[in-house]
Records
---
Amino acid sequence: MKAEIVNIGDELLIGQVVNTNAAWLGEQLSLAGITVIMTVTIPDSRDAILEALAEAEKRSDLVLITGGLGPTKDDVTKLTLCDYFNTKLVFHQASYENVEKRFHARGLKVKETNRRQAEIPESCTPIMNHNGTAPGMWFEKGSTIYVSLPGVPYELQPMVSDFILPRLRESFKLPVILKKTILTQGIGESWIAETISEWEDSLPGNIKLAYLPQPGLVRIRLTVVGEDKEEAVKELENRVEELIALLPDYFFGYDDETLEEIIGRLLNEEGKTLGTAESCTGGYIAHLITSIPGSSAYFKGSVVAYSNEVKEDILKVRKETLIKYGAVSKETVTEMASGIRNHFRTDYSIAVSGIAGPEGGTEEKPVGTTCIAIASPEKVVARRFLFGDHRGRNIRIAALTALNMLRKQLLNHLIT
Amino acid sequence: MKAEIVNIGDELLIGQVVNTNAAWLGEQLSLAGITVIMTVTIPDSRDAILEALAEAEKRSDLVLITGGLGPTKDDVTKLTLCDYFNTKLVFHQASYENVEKRFHARGLKVKETNRRQAEIPESCTPIMNHNGTAPGMWFEKGSTIYVSLPGVPYELQPMVSDFILPRLRESFKLPVILKKTILTQGIGESWIAETISEWEDSLPGNIKLAYLPQPGLVRIRLTVVGEDKEEAVKELENRVEELIALLPDYFFGYDDETLEEIIGRLLNEEGKTLGTAESCTGGYIAHLITSIPGSSAYFKGSVVAYSNEVKEDILKVRKETLIKYGAVSKETVTEMASGIRNHFRTDYSIAVSGIAGPEGGTEEKPVGTTCIAIASPEKVVARRFLFGDHRGRNIRIAALTALNMLRKQLLNHLIT
């Protein structure tokens, strides 16, 4: 089954509103086994709507139309649908009662403009809108199904989940489509592509791979299309296992998981605590950790040491170390990590010092040079990296790299 | 001039990524006086791309194509463009040198897959990508201009602003469209609307007002459309002044300015230093401040005190204060602000303590309760606020409110 999404609204075209409906609908349809072949955004204009509907009929079995159903004059969708489906507006009692109920609940009287929202094209099946006044409309023309929905996300979403998808499942045998995303840290897209190239080439046609890179992370999504759910689940599981086995040092989680969540879970499980000492990341690691609800159970705090003075006074980095090796060195971050661990009396600590840029680079230590240390009850591990030349991304990459180093330490500790 | 945006990418259709490029491009083109008549999202498929390009040619003068230019096998855009424009890939030395430079800067060798990114269709004008390895491509066919761009927003945006829009302006007479955005903090959208309602109603038709609310901020954008540039500049300046005069306590800056930038500038001008003591904001204020290049000149660091232990040990908050008034109180943040200012020997300091949620609220101090103190050489000012019930937004709003309080202190100090 092929679907197309038609979003109507000037506000989308001029970029006043980001089109989140397209993404949400795309995900829901994909998960139901319906292939979204296209999304189109057009203005609130009769001609544009008529053309988009006619084009869609040529290539799609299902057309989801959003927007343009408001009570104001610039919303022309409903009248245009009447033209396209050669029908006329009729008063719909149940929709009117819905409008009335919503207005009365707020102590308001129904206005003429709102009364018009209860008029629907005669040939459609109305879809009740429990979160607004504009009903949805289901049309069939030839072998194509058209559904018109309001553009407000919290009105549209329950109409899709509670009415449209169940009705489609009843009427059509939809294929099973499953997906899983593998998260990696510490390896670039092209290095992954090279590492898994042979395996990727050997994948059968019903399995798709997509790379979704972000600063400091690459997400790899596997999609399986099948007919039998159990078989598809098994096939996806096997492929995911194979893929992880090819990237054992870089894989850290699935789907929407974050490193800060995973670390929080591991620390909670162990009943251990954490502190951070940050120079170039400037508090960003602490921010990621404390963005997780309940992080106060394991996170004691951080010292952002943006000056050498603070590194010496509070973190007890020795002056000799700073002079001999510099603030950005494995020696300094090792002392920072020990310093914060002792000072805050935590089990683990992270310390980072680097040159985020754009200024401050030298030949020996160019912009992007970053040292990270992880202190655990047993030892301190320090590493030196060279990231890129963009300040914001360097901060992000340094933070994710540090969190991943800590994750590995925590896992090692659990194993041994 | 009519434009169309063609976004290529399976990840957009299945909703794994929200299409923010369409909104950003729509806004830039609209502001340049170019009408966006349609945006289309299609899969990484040769046939779909060919069809979309042919359809676009029928109705648009300008077609902006995004995505599908990565080094991996699922990216088919470049080869398909060769077919459509009846040309072939050729090696482009300048693009290769860009790839090489980016790899060498990170101490990496260029791989075959990356080398291929420097191959471009022979008939196009290449557009340098200063933030990535895939060059942009400018084609002309009949009276239609096609531009293919990488899908990564921070790569695409400067290519549009620095190359494509200037080149379009050179070739076409576009109307004069000017905009200026006024930034406010500490007042909600509906309060602003009420305050400026009369003035807003009196605006002439060629001036548009848009509210762009974000957690903790409301941006108000004024757009003037005209034919004469000088006149439009003057009109915009006058309206901006009028608007600011209506919101004197809340206005803090223009356009893309941030509070952290403004504070950095003020501290630099005064030659003064800053430290922060953060509880509920968890390092986010320090992160904002240190996201500004050169912040090490005025920012000495932060103590993220996520436990009372750290508040007492390092910030020297008295145990009696914590017991009598609680960690979230004006008394505690006052001592935190003094503590960090003394400890780090800075001129100014910010201290924040609050209940970010979702847990931890009480009847007396519900989720969202936040206390903020600013210490300056003369005094400490503390205030108590009640924000919302969403953890991430509470952190953001608390940080912006604190930065704005510091900004006011710095300005007062400059005046007196």
---
Amino acid sequence: MPHHKQSENALLQKIRRAFPEGASARRGDLARLRRNSLHLAIGDDAALFRPTPGHESVLTCDWFLEGTHFLRDKHPADSVGWKSLARAISDIAAMGGTPRCFLLSLALPQDATGTWLDAFLAGLRRASKRFDCVLAGGDTTRRDEILISVTVIGEIAISRALRRDGAKPGDLIYVSGRLGEAEQGLRILRKQRGAARRSDSRLRKHLYPEPRLALGSWLSANHLSNAAMDLSDGLSSDLPRLCDASGVGALLYATKLPIALDAGKDGVDLALHGGDDYELLFTIPRSSEKRIPASFQGVPLTQIGEITNTRKLVLIDLQGRRKTLRPQGWDSFVPAAFCLPR
Amino acid sequence: MPHHKQSENALLQKIRRAFPEGASARRGDLARLRRNSLHLAIGDDAALFRPTPGHESVLTCDWFLEGTHFLRDKHPADSVGWKSLARAISDIAAMGGTPRCFLLSLALPQDATGTWLDAFLAGLRRASKRFDCVLAGGDTTRRDEILISVTVIGEIAISRALRRDGAKPGDLIYVSGRLGEAEQGLRILRKQRGAARRSDSRLRKHLYPEPRLALGSWLSANHLSNAAMDLSDGLSSDLPRLCDASGVGALLYATKLPIALDAGKDGVDLALHGGDDYELLFTIPRSSEKRIPASFQGVPLTQIGEITNTRKLVLIDLQGRRKTLRPQGWDSFVPAAFCLPR
């Protein structure tokens, strides 16, 4: 039988120190937890979350696995912490919700419980503060590779959630931000030797994505959007999911895509197929066109096409030719070797 | 770039077929989902869960990893499905809560997407129906080993949760069931060649644990218990956690432990250190002793000792000698080779 009882306790202590408002939930300063409706966090069998009256809970979980979603020798540990939470929060943003708390499932090799874990927790804590989403609990275990699963619990006023299944023929299709930048960042990362330098904005977008929470909330609060989702796998993979859920098709214009500024001739391909952008894809009734500004809080909003009733996905390319749009983005359910590096 | 877009979609289709009430959330039959307060499940960015007014949400997550928590050639796939959900639900039972829905993070090798996945989903579905806890969503990816993380969302009337931190000196300590049976089951499993036979009750307890939901609810509804938790790592590991949270000590009597019926001279050790029992450990004020029956819905309830104000854990052994109780149970944060088989 194992006699290493203290190791899991030591790991929990480290996590508690990084998230003291969770650790002190049982006694003492509860102000921040209470503000996030959390009434019992790390240290009991389960966490207690008091939902806001008149709101629904928004629930999502995301894998973030060494070798599949990140490489330990390429991705800085604090980026792994930030991104593991940010990408799950992006799903909350895509629903128009507000994140409240998260659960962390963490499996670590012994040699990652020192400086790697410290930097990971620092990045995770930074994201937790930035998005006002507190650690409520989790599970830890030993493993030969780093495994992370994050569950985020958010909230939204009842019946206000942005769903995928409401797009209607004639709707205009929009995206936020510029597409393909995170893919550019991944390519930069792959060419660099050793750990990543963070001076490049495309690299930062790959390492430290910013979920579009304010935009999602604004679309939801103003009843602007018929359908929305976040772009995680790439436009050519994600748009079909929205169309499939809504029982519609789409017509996209390559000339309208907000491509990365210095992407050159790869720009359209990067915008169509690049993953990890965590921008929002949404549709609005044509009658609301004037209510969508050119940018929202500094993030460009670009009309890229329209919803059709054909159930087909068509791209008008740069030469004006009609093409069927085929998914070529990220699909994590393929052998890891095919996924990273791509 | 990967061109295997269909593989994740195919996996999701299989999961949707196994949990049709989740898949049909967007259209059609919503009765079961609505009864569980779920308003949007599999297929969108996130699930929508409508909490019951006057209730808190109870949140917990648990790893269930090949090689650490189960062995693919020993544990039947349907047991992996059942147990991955049941052990997370046990945390809800320990709080006195009622499970409502769960999220499934699943990573699979290609060779497990056929009959293994079918049997896994059948066991998961059986547990989902048994405990009335519906699949709300999740995340899938490809991996060379089977990785499972389950998050369960439950509910409890506000301020009624059973916590670990309320035990008081003089409280009587109880456990449900007989302790060490699941450990016996694991030993039987290890001795068998090939996949497990399920005729043995101890083996069934290891493979298909039953969270003590009714007991937890009863303790909570009747304000009987000062502190409670579930026994997952073994009494000698879990009791110190309850005592530490409450700032108290405990005195246990080996003669009182509800040992497995045919455990022989190993009985006390198995009861103290055996993991995976998923029974409840709880304390009550001495004045409530007469309100605790000898069994609850067929499950024995046994008084095994009392809470002290010493902050020490003392065992009176079978010979009447006082001994310090040391944790020797399961600690999953040790090298996997040390954990399974034990």
